[in-house]
Amino acid sequence: MHLLRAALRLKLAVMSIIWMHGLGDTPAGWSDLEQNIPKLLEAADIELETPIVFKFPAAPKAPVTINKGAESNSWFDLVDFPCTPDSKDDVKGITASLKRIHALIDSVAETVEHSKIIVGGFSQGAALALQAVYTYPKKLAGCVCLSGWLQMRDQFPKVATAANKKTRCFWGHGFMDNVCSLVRDDRDFVPTHIASLVVTFCFDQ
What we know:
Radius of gyration: 16 Å
């Protein structure tokens, strides 16, 4: 909720939320956010002057290694199941999807200020959201990572932009998650790679 408050500054002008689905899902799987988030804001006495602009991009269909090569809606290839912080990254696929999401942010920014755009996602989409926000050249409102992981970790400190180093992120994850497994706790793997970022962690048992 603090991300929404920061983006909208209480008397809320137009803002946008870009949300990426996970592997095998579609935009329809998360489209209820469009109805539920305004209800949460209303319950928290946050006044909307204009509707939130929601964008739910769709991942392309592509062969996925963990699905034995079967095609699925996928932002990039996955070679390990469960995913861990040490899983091999599909750099080509990540880079291609990153370009698509940055282009979408550019498009949204034609009518919404960059500083009022939140980018988030679930699982595969969450991993992409982290890359999209912190490598984007202009200041964004925030990032939401649900059951995600940081990819291309060794490169991350080099590619993270100065514009978003202080951009807030909410990172939620369940320790019992058997799809995306954080084999190290946040005190171990997080500070090494994103210590300078403003991240709120919520790890659920």
